[in-house]
Amino acid sequence: xxxxxxxxxxxxxxxxxxxxxxxxxxxxxxxxxxxxxxxxxxxxxxxxxxxxxxxxxxxxxxxxxxxxxxxxxxxxxxxxxxxxxxxxxxxxxxxxxxxxxxxxxxxxxxxxxxxxxxxxxxxxxxxxxxxxxxxxxxxxxxxxxxxxxxxxxxxxxxxxxxxxxxxxxxxxxxxxxxxxxxxxxxxxxxxxxxxxxxxxxxxxxxxxxxxxxxxxxxxxxxxxxxxxxxxxxxxxxxxxxxxxxxxxxxxxxxxxxxxxxxxxxxxxxxxxxxxxxxxxxxxxxxxxxxxxxxxxxxxxxxxxxxxxxxxxxxxxxxxxxxxxxxxxxxxxxxxxxxxxxxxxxxxx
Length: 348
Description:
It contains 14 helices and 14 strands. A hairpin with a 3-residue loop joins strand 7 and strand 8 (139-144). The chain has helices at residues 2-13, 34-40, 57-64, 74-86, 102-113, 153-158, 160-164, 180-192, 204-209, 211-217, 228-237, 245-253, 301-314, 319-333, and strands at 18-21, 25-31, 47-49, 68-72, 92-99, 117-123, 130-135, 139-144, 168-172, 196-200, 223-227, 264-269, 272-278, 281-285. Helix content is 39%, strand content 23%. The protein has a 9-stranded mixed beta sheet. Strands 3-8-7-2-4 form a 5-stranded mixed beta sheet. By secondary structure, it is of the alpha/beta class.
């Protein structure tokens, strides 16, 4: 009996490696006066893509205000949180595209400090992608994707040994706008080698306007993540004829898959229960509601949920434990500014 218990413990502690690929951004965050938003015509509590007239904001922030530099981008956030939740050296790997500039150096340093093994394609056509986070009584986000949009399949192929060394693969849907070929190459490898492939549907516009590349990748997925807004958009776009989240999750789970393999569909709903569909059945997992006075920033909540989930999937945990790990990670992150976490180990 003791032998069995020891074996179970060791099995849980043996962490499989997680690989992520996506659009790396350096978040540049600072507290600023309202007049700074007015100067550039930014609206409070809005997220936009930077236009040409907005580009000076990044350098002006750095020269005028005290800035925090945080490695960002959806998949990179997930991988950083997975590394923190894992607490195992070398547990996570990440690919994306940046430039050989000051922001690229800051981003690499930040990811390295988080313990992630990152390998970036270095783009010579654009600057490292950035996201200005202007903090007043709320937040304004201005994203300049830049070099992140120029990832090359050749980088993936040249560094393929990293892919082969990993066991669980995760790519947020945003990367569909950059390199669907790279996504499919990883997806097919995972399937052929009986490894875990997962994606996030990530945003309504991806479901609506990148439907074809998304539907080429989803058949390979063992896990599909999303939130309730994305699930509702998916249902409308694919004419499911329902707005019930559990029914939508079941219908996504039942979509065509390679070799008819079964998949988990995981839909988060903020403070409401997380819904998981698998093999024609659904389960709900309650969320411990955070007191309003402890809520700081919901940016990165979904990314961090997936990070916690995958970290415990890599440890061999069951579904309930994986979801609980996701809830825990998300709960920690939303009590902090930006997608950041303590320097101490998780208390989970």
